[in-house]
Amino acid sequence: MLRFLYEDPWERLRKLRKLVPNIPFQMLLRSTNGVAYSSLPDNALFHFVKLAKDTGVDIFRVFDSLNDLENLKIGIDAVHAAGGLVEGAVMYTGDMLNPRSKYDLKYYMGVVDCLVEYGSHVIAVKSMSGVMKPAAGRALVRAIRTKYPEMPIHMHTHDTNGAGVATMLACVEEGADIVDTAVDSLSGATSQPAASAMVVALENSGFDSRLSLHQLQVIDAYWAQLRLMYAGFDADLRSPDPTVYRHEIPGGQYSNLIFQARQNGLGNQWAETLKAYEDANHLLGDIIKATPTSKAVGDLAQFMVDRKLSAVDIQQRASTLDFPKSVVEYFEGLMGRPFDGFPEPLRTHVLRGQRDVVKKRPGLTMDSVDFDRVRRHIAAMFPGSPVTEYDVASYVMFPQVYMEFRQARRNFGDLTALRTPDFLSPPEIGQEVRLPKGGDRDVIAEMVAIRPLESATGMRDVLFRLNGEFCSVAVRDVKATPRRKLPKADVHAEGEVAAPMAGAVVRVIAQDGQTVKVGQTLLTVGAMKMEVNVSSPVSGRIDTIAAVAGDAVDKGDLLVRIAPYAVNGR
Question: Residue 568: pLDDT above 70?
Fold first, then answer.
C-alpha cells in the first residue's frame, strides 16, 4: 500500500475495523522481520506488533521463511506481549512422503512441537508453493491431530498446480479445522483454491461449511468487476503449472517474478528463469521459500539468466561476482538459518570475508531502535506535519518507501479519494473526475488540454476546469525529460566498472580520489526491488564517479573509473 498506492495501511486498518467490528482480523507476521524483508531489532518488532494489535489485528499468523525456531519464538513472544492470538505456522516445501526428502514428517512434527511449546493457540501449515500433495496433507494433519487432539489446525496452499482443492479436501477429512480459499474471480493458479468449489465439495459430506453459495456469488460479482480494473497487472496465467513441483516458486512470488523478468528485459526467457530458479534453490541449500528467502532465490535466478551463468559457473566464480543484496543477506544469516546449515564453500566465497556472519538470532546483535530519534528525523524532513507512533513504525519497516509515501502525500494529498480507474490511468481530454469533498458538494475536475513541452525546463501546462472554473498548473513531464546519458564502460579496461543490469543507481558509497581494494562496495544499483552492490574489480584510486544516486542506467553503462595500482605498488 505504501509503495504502490501511496496509502497508509494503518488508516485502512482503522477504517476496516470500524466497518467490521465483529469479525476477527488476521495478519501475517514474518517472525523477526515483522512485515519487512530482513530482521528487525527486538524492540522494533514488539513496538510494531503492539500497534497492530491496538489498531485492530486479532490473530497473528507467525511464520519464519526457514522455520528458524529462535526467530519463531521471538515473534510468538511479541504477539503474547501484545495480547494477540498466536497462530504458529509451519512452512511446507518439497514432498514429505519422498524418502529422499530432508523435509520429512519427523522434521515437520519437530517444528509443530516447538510451536506448541512456545504457546501457539492455533497451528497453521503453509504450502506457499502449493506443492503439498493430498496424501502428504492427509498424513501431516493426521499426525498433528493425533498428538494434539484439541489444537485447531489451519491449512493453507496455493493452486498453481491445479490440485489445491483435492489437497484441502484431504486435509479436512483428516481433521483440519480451517482451510484458506479465495473468492472465485480471484482464485486458482497462484492464488488459493476457489471458495465455491470447496463449499460444494463439502456439501452433504459430514464436513458441510454451512456457507451460502448464493452469498458467495454476490460477493464474487464485486471482485470480478474490480479485477477487470487491474487487468494490466494480471500475469495472465491460463492453466495449471505442474512444473511447480520442480521449481517450487511460491504462489505469491510467481506473478511478481513474471513482471520482474519483463522489467529486467528477461520476459522472453521465462523458461530459462524457471530452470534458473530451480538451480538457485539448490545452490542456496534446497531451502524453504517464502518472504524473504524466496526473494533471495528469485533474485539469484534472474541474476543467473541475465548474465548467462549456470549453477556450475556460480560455484566456480562466486568469489568474483557481485551478487544481489538479498543473496548476500541470506548468507550473512540475516534471514535466519536453515536447519541443516548453509552450503559451503559457496557461502564463504559469496561473503569473501568482507561481511560478518550472524551466528546468533539477528535481533540479539542489532542495536535497539531509538524511536525518538526516528520521530525527530521524520519531523525534520516534513516540518509542520504531526508524526505519530504509526509513522515511526512504518519508517522503521520501510525507510525509503515511507519517505516516498510522505512526499507523495505532501505533493498530492490523500489519493484514496480517487476512484481506482482514475488512480491507475491519466484522464483523457474532456474527461471528468469526481472527487468527494465531504459535506454536500463534490469537486468535479475536467481535463481541458495539455500544452506542449517546454524543452528548456521539462515542464508542461495542464489546463482543466474545477467545478466549472478554468485553472492551469505547471507539471514536470518525467517521461519527456531527457535522462542523463552515461558512456559505456570499456570491457577491456580493468578499472572501468559497468552497471550490472538496467535499473537505477540507489546509492553511491565511493568518493572521488578514494583508495579502494578489490571487492570493496562502490555503489548499489536496483531494479524492481532487486538490488546489487557493485564492488571494485581492482585495487586502486577512484578517478571518476560517472553516476549519481537516482540516475537511470542501462546494462554496461560506466559507473566508476578506477586507476589501478601496479602489482608491486602504486
Answer: no
